[in-house]
Each structure stands twice: as C-alpha cells, then as structure tokens.
Amino acid sequence: MMSRAERTIAGEWWWTVDRWLLGALGLLTVAGIVLSLAASPAVAERLGLGLFHFVNRQVFFALIAIPVLLTISFLSPRQVRRVALLAFIVGWVMLVSTLFFGAEIKGSRRWISILGITVQPSELIKPAFVILCAWLFSEGARRRDVPGHLLAVLLLGLVVTPLILQPDFGQTLLVTTVWGALFFLAGLGWMWVVGLTGAGAVGFLTAYTFIPHVAERINRFLDPESGDTYQVDRAIESFVSGGWFGKGPGEGTVKRVLPDSHTDFVFAVTGEEFGIIACLALLSIFAFIVLRGLNRARREEDLFVRFAVAGLSMLFGLQALINMAVNVHLLPAKGMTLPFISSGGSSLVSLSFGMGLLIALTRDRPRAELVAEEMAAQAERSRR
C-alpha cells in the first residue's frame, strides 16, 4: 500500500485520483467481458467464426484500453488540452478520410481501416471535441477579447459536417446535445437560445424531409406497423423472457436470433440472462459515474476544468442513455454502443481515452498547483 508521504509520481497519483470513479469504470470493463461472453458466441457461430472470437477481441482491446486510461489520467489540465488538440486533429483527418476511403456498411461510411484494424473516427474525436469546446467557452468567459462562443460554433460545424455526410445522425445528435449543454453552462444569451433552437428545428425538418433513412427510422418508431422492427421486438421479448432475475448465464434463447446482440442490443441480452435487477445495477453504475462527475464539476473553481468535466460526464451518460433507451423502444434505433459493455475495439479504446481525461481532470490538486496552472495559462495566452 502506498504511503501518503511517498512523493513518487505513482504515489501522488494514487492519493489524488478519484478511486470511486476508477473502481466504477473497472466494474464496467469487467461487466463488458462477462456480457460479451454471454452475448457474442451466438453471433460468432452465425458468422462462421470461432465461438469466443468476440470475447477474445473484447479482452484484447480491454488490455489496450486500461493502460490508455491510466496513462491519460496522469496528465495535468494543461497537458489535457494539448493531448485533446492533437487527438482532435488526428480524429478529424480520419473522420474526413472515411468519406473517401471508408467501407460502406448499411449505407453509411463510418469506418476506416488502418494497418488492418477497423476504426470509427467519430469515437476518438468526441472526447477531444468536448475538451476543446470547454477550453473555448472558458476562454470566452474569462476574456472579452476572445470570441470563444463563435469559435465553438465553428468547431461544432467542423465536426458535424462530416458526420452528416457519412451519414451518422446518432453521433451528430450526441455531440450537438453535449455542445448545447456546455454553451448553456457558459451562460449563452437569449439571442443564442432562439438562434440555436431555430437552427436545430430547421436541421431536423430538413433531415426528415430529404433523407429517407432518417424519415424511415422516425416513422418506424412512431408507427411500428410502417416498417421492419425485428430487432426492437426481439429486444423487448428478451426483457420479458428474462423477468426480474433472468434465465441464467448462457441460458438465453432470444439472443440467438438477435443480429446485433453483442453490440447495440447487449443490454437486451443482459435482461434475458441476468434479469431486470442486473439491468438496474448496470444503470446504477452509469448513473454513479455521471453524477459523481457532475458533482466534481460543480465544485471546481477553474472554468475550463468545470466545463470539461461536465461535458465528458454528459457525453458518457447520454451515450449510455441512448443505447439503453433504444433497447427498450423509448428512442428510434441509433446504432450507438453501450460504453465499456458493447463489443467494439475502437469504441472501447476511445471511451477509455475520454474517461482517462475525466479522471485526470477530477484529480485533487493543491491550491498552489492550481495557481501555477493558471499562471502558466496566462503566460501562454500573453505569448499569443
């Protein structure tokens, strides 16, 4: 056990990190492997792969994701901004590249292959985007000569445009919602409220009118008889079949005919095999992470850290909420993974990157360190 008097980097990290938050993320990682073991063999068998193909893949990427999370958690707020800027540039280049070189899957170009590994760039760019928006909003609040709000609007356009062109409206909705929440925290005026609400309404109506894919999903959600609702119907059947306590590990049957049981609908498999009680326990872990993050943000004096922690917490929570809501037919199908639970390599590593940023920003920092950080930031701004 490390002593509080130990002045090593690891010792200081251990006594300043939010160990409850770290433990909750660890629980989700373990739960992801267990639920992959429950949900993925049936899919692997249908695809002619090894029975534990997706389980082994989940473990492999978890062994990459854990060091990523822990390494990023050592960063200072200043280093967080720099890493986020680099990640945003790399992620944006890859995001645009998917439009030209990405494989088309179900009518969308969201994936790109790099050195034989399939990557979804939108997953990487999301946490970096939140950090940069928090930076711009905080600078705009501190200094009237910095057009932080305007730059944040331009940054949103830079991310949303390639997402719409893919098209990926689920991720577009997610990043836009988090961006709007950060703008609200930054104290947007009524003109901005009216303008952004109007722009959002126009965007929604345009997508519904001119993009058949969007209209089809919304119509199918509002009127199930208007289209194919096979996956959602099977998901509801899974929850009903499992009841409160589930059929038991490996005893599920509906998962065998649920095409995306290991990704988008892993929550339904949880309901069938482990019961609604297990689903509520999983929901509680997600809620704990989000509420703890928001509580830490509320107590922060540094505007950048406050906005960044709130944004990362909301990003994580909204993604989980959308996935679970789709599983119980409260939202139209979005193709959104359940953080740390759904099978997916780039998603797991990118989520670990984002949560590493969150843990880095929520570490307890002495007052002297906060002052030094602010002075360094002021010196950096003056050099510009």
From TrEMBL:
Keywords: Cell cycle, Cell division, Cell membrane, Cell shape, Cell wall biogenesis/degradation, Glycosyltransferase, Membrane, Peptidoglycan synthesis, Transferase, Transmembrane, Transmembrane helix
E.C. designation(s): 2.4.99.28
Places the protein is found: Cell membrane
InterPro entries xrefs: FtsW, FtsW/RodA
Reactions catalysed according to its record: [GlcNAc-(1->4)-Mur2Ac(oyl-L-Ala-gamma-D-Glu-L-Lys-D-Ala-D-Ala)](n)-di-trans,octa-cis-undecaprenyl diphosphate + beta-D-GlcNAc-(1->4)-Mur2Ac(oyl-L-Ala-gamma-D-Glu-L-Lys-D-Ala-D-Ala)-di-trans,octa-cis-undecaprenyl diphosphate = [GlcNAc-(1->4)-Mur2Ac(oyl-L-Ala-gamma-D-Glu-L-Lys-D-Ala-D-Ala)](n+1)-di-trans,octa-cis-undecaprenyl diphosphate + di-trans,octa-cis-undecaprenyl diphosphate + H(+)
Record-level GO cellular component terms: cell division site; plasma membrane
Membrane topology: Multi-pass membrane protein
Family the entry assigns: Belongs to the SEDS family. FtsW subfamily.
NCBIfam families: ftsW
Protein name as annotated: Probable peptidoglycan glycosyltransferase FtsW
Origin species: Agaricicola taiwanensis
Annotated gene: ftsW
